[in-house]
Specification:
Elements (H helix, E strand, L loop, with lengths): L1 H78 L4 H28 L1 H7 L1 H15 L3 E7 L8 H22 L3 E8 L3 E8 L13 H12 L3 E6 L5 E8 L1
Parallel strand pairs: 1-2
Antiparallel strand pairs: 2-3, 3-5, 4-5
Helix pairs in contact: 1-2, 1-6, 2-4, 4-5, 5-6
């Protein structure tokens, strides 16, 4: 009887261990499936956003851009026919339309991922900073450290650029900043991207659930990059991205 009890106890223990392993495996498989599902959802959302931005970029370039170009041409023709006392106003309006056309073309470039890939990562950032400098900031510059490294996946350039765009957009809307700076630091196996503004800053803890911060973090997760936002009231905002090359 003792031997039978020991054998039964041993079988129960073996069964329990096997059950726990099976349960752990099922939980791990479910977790992996959920993680893959979440990543696929994020990837799909990102692709939909890119298609939408590309369409908007085309519309700006082909429709709004053409209308502004036509308006500029008409104003130039009108400037030769109006009285002298009106020519100054016509010229001022012409210059505004030309500046608007320049902004529309720069914006259309930053929205179209095909154009961004053709321009390259660094030139795309420079184009965006120049546009923002004309629009709002007294200083908007890009600094590059180390030897430039090529991206193994060109789509990651777009994702990193969109993260920076989100940061720039928040700086424009909320920060009241006067200066923007981006540093690309190419190291042996990692690219560290630092973006800063000198605005009024904010309490990071209270902004954790904001859509902008969530969008930046979800995009970073898609490419296995580490993203951190640091800020304090009246001390500007700093974005740091560590991207494995």
């Amino acid at each position: 009887m003792t031997l039978v009890v020991i054998m039964l106890l041993f079988m129960v223990i073996v069964f329990f261990i096997a059950f726990q392993r099976r349960k752990s495996k099922l939980l791990l498989d479910n977790f992996k499936q959920q993680q893959e599902f979440d990543e696929e959802i994020s990837r799909t959302q990102s692709e939909i956003q890119e298609q939408t931005l590309k369409h908007v970029g085309w519309e700006l370039h082909d429709n709004v851009g053409q209308l502004l170009a036509y308006a500029s041409m008409q104003l130039n023709m009108l400037g030769t026919k109006v009285p002298e006392d009106v020519k100054g106003k016509v010229q001022e309006t012409t210059d505004i339309v030309k500046d608007s056309l320049k902004e529309v073309r720069a914006l259309s470039k930053s929205l179209n991922n095909d154009v961004l890939l053709n321009m390259g990562f660094e030139e795309s950032i420079t184009n965006e900073l120049n546009r923002l400098k004309r629009m709002k900031f007294s200083l908007a510059e890009l600094e590059i450290k180390g030897d430039k490294r090529e991206f193994s996946d060109k789509k990651h350039e777009i994702i990193l650029f969109r993260i920076l765009q989100e940061f720039f957009s928040n700086s424009v809307k909320y920060s009241e900043a006067d200066q923007l700076k981006v540093i690309l630091d190419y190291q042996t196996d990692i690219l560290t991207i630092t973006a800063t503004d000198d605005g009024k800053g904010f309490d990071v803890a209270s902004a954790e659930k904001g859509s902008g911060l969530i969008n930046m973090k979800s995009r970073a997760e898609l490419i296995d990059a580490d993203l951190e936002i640091t800020s304090q009231p009246n001390h500007g905002v700093k974005l740091t991205i560590h991207y494995p090359i």
